[in-house]
Amino acid sequence: MFTRLEDLPRARAVWESTAQTNFKKSTWEAWDKAAKITESLCHRWAIGPWQERSQAAKRNRAAHLEKNVHTSGSVFYATHSQKLETYDRMMADRYAKGTPQPNLDL
Q1: How many CA atoms lie within 13 A of 18 on its CB side?
Q2: Quick one: which of 61, 81, 86, 55 has its CA closest to 73?
Q3: Judging by beta carbons within 10 Å of its beta carbon (0-12, 13-18, 19+), is residue 61 exposed, middle or buried?
Q4: What is the mean pLDDT of the chain?
Q5: pLDDT category, 106, cuts 50, 70, 90?
Q6: pLDDT for 29-49, tens place per residue?
Q7: What is the three-state SS of 13-60?
Q8: At what angle are helices 48-63 and 8-45 packed, to 10 degrees?
Q9: Which of 4, 13, 71, 86 is the most exposed place for a label (fewest CB within 10 A)?
Q10: What is the C-alpha to C-alpha distance for residues 5 and 100, in angstroms, rounded to an integer?
Q11: Angle (CA) 72 89 81, round 5°
């Protein structure tokens, strides 16, 4: 259809229009698919074994506040700082007598 050099501006306009339409369609389809999957997962997580596991994890987190286990989320700054101070003291005690410290890969 577009075989001459003077057809180039029209060909570009048709290409950009088609690409824009296809992009909008692809974006909408991806959004629709994601919404359906999200709805399906929310329904699945709201019932049965998932809720039982969730409740058990909540009870465990509440019973062991001092521990930072995988299900408890991020480590609090105070906890991290305390562990770091303990590590620093242990390393100072271990290598205080002039023994060389191991080379660490930073």
Answers
A1: 6
A2: 61
A3: middle
A4: 81
A5: low
A6: 999 999 999 999 998 888 888
A7: HHHHHHHHHHHHHHHHHHHHHHHHHHHHHHHHHCCHHHHHHHHHHHHH
A8: 70
A9: 4
A10: 76
A11: 30
